[in-house]
Write the structure tokens for this entry.
Amino acid sequence: MCFACMNCIDDCPEDALSFTMAGLDTKQVVPAPDLSRRQLVFSAAAGTVAVPLLASEGINTDKNYSPLLIRPPGSVEESEFLERCIKCDQCINVCPTNVLQPATFSEGGFESLWTPVMNFNIGHCQLKCTLCSVVCPTGAIRTITVEEKLGKGTFQQAGPVRLGTAFYDLGRCLPHAMEIPCVVCEEVCPVSPKAIQTKDVEAKDVYGNVVVLNKPFIVPDLCIGCGICQKECPVTDSRAVYVTAVGESRSLERRLLLTNRGEA
């Protein structure tokens, strides 16, 4: 299946390949457009509605795009990503955990429709997997190594590739909201030291008995946004822990914390 990525044209050693638009059959009769007053008014109204929808996230895409749009590791900044991505689904097809899914309209509007996003209710991003970056034909997801993804070796100073940051909905988290013991998110957190840690808190159960609960909390500097905490959270209808794109590596505009006032 051809995705019109043009890579074959660039790589051909004999310059034997080219790309042209298919010619129009001159024998085909093309009807004249209906320019009646009613049709003209309807078209103008439809265009007025469509324009803001097609650019629903504003002119500066990097600043204003939805936090639900968590892109694959190695993705370039959002405005360039949307220019490069041809929605070929190769990254989605190769993903071993099925965490990569096509974006819906509600996640990013028409502009992002069918582009790859992370759905952490379905899967998570494996620490040592970079397959999506290998198969991307256009550079929307740049090729990265496992060493770069984990921030090891020569990439130690840059740190790991961060997809986002995990947050808690304390009204749904079992230990925080219902005094029910649960540390699933802390147990499955794959980074070392763990980005999800716990603190012992004394509380009373419904019978008045004093119990000690391990209440989890996020260490933002350690979180890489892999999403396994969200995937494994036992509160399955709407997860008590969830990941957004805030703090992702690819965008300076989406840093989690503001810089100190004294910094340049």
Summary: The CA atoms of residues 164 and 248 lie 4 Å apart.
